Amino acid sequence: QLKETVYLDKLAVAGQMAAAIAHEVRNPMTTIRGMIQFLGSTTTDAKLREHSPLLIEELDRTNKIITDYLSMVKPDVPKLETVSLEKVLRDVIALTAPYGAINNVEVTASPLGSYNVCIDEPKLKQGLINIIKNGIEAIEEGGTIHLYRYKVTKSRITIAIEDNGKGMTEEELEQIGLPFYTTKAKGTGLGMMVTYKLIQDMDGKLRYESVLNEGTRVLLTLQLCTKRNIVNGEEVG
Ligand code: ADP
Ligand code: MG
């Protein structure tokens, strides 16, 4: 039985408050980081000298989480361009293949055909990388991530990113994309929240289907750069 979820406005929860807090927290953190660095390098205390790099590392990790958060909530108008989807997929596969290889996962794609999409290229790539990385991390003992054309209409194309990883229960599926939702020991639970926002900003759609212990299929819909079919102000097809 197929379990499915459609992303709606889960982001509203994360909202503007998080952005404000993140922003405020950053400045004192920078001060603390500088101070630790200074003390760590000038002190005669062996313990402080030994542990200060770890403190700095942890501060940097915290800062990265905040950066991810801000990249999601801060209004950033996407730069939409006409780009070959096949080229984007090729680039993204080349970027994720090494991470797949060390996890015994092959990242593959079926020939897509020539479709130009209306997208922000760096943002689409970031989103696809997040999706593929999750697929790789869901595969425990080797497997495949496969990308293929799922559906094409007059104005949109949907591609599938499918993995044969551990899948998700209905409950897990509902939580994906919520801030800090993670089932991983070292996860941030921000990847899909950011991705959803990036895709939404370019008028795209993201949808997950999953079967526990069998795998997950992510359906990503993007706008094609063809002339749109407009009838009475309504888009058709
Ligand atoms: P993180 O990867 O840091 O955990 P994400 O937002 O990228 O955060 O993903 C949130 C959670 O969604 C993951 O921890 C995992 O439980 C689940 N998930 C995402 N993609 C998949 C997938 N392809 N297969 C199984 N579970 C997934
Ligand atoms: Mg992730």
Automatic annotation (TrEMBL):
<keyword id="KW-0902">Two-component regulatory system</keyword>
<keyword id="KW-0547">Nucleotide-binding</keyword>
<keyword id="KW-0472">Membrane</keyword>
<feature type="domain" description="Histidine kinase">
    <location>
        <begin position="20"/>
        <end position="226"/>
    </location>
</feature>
<dbReference type="GO" id="GO:0016301">
    <property type="term" value="F:kinase activity"/>
</dbReference>
<keyword id="KW-0418">Kinase</keyword>
<keyword id="KW-0812">Transmembrane</keyword>
<keyword id="KW-0597">Phosphoprotein</keyword>
<keyword id="KW-0067">ATP-binding</keyword>
<keyword id="KW-1003">Cell membrane</keyword>
<protein>
    <recommendedName>
        <fullName>histidine kinase</fullName>
        <ecNumber>2.7.13.3</ecNumber>
    </recommendedName>
</protein>
<keyword id="KW-1133">Transmembrane helix</keyword>
<keyword id="KW-0808">Transferase</keyword>
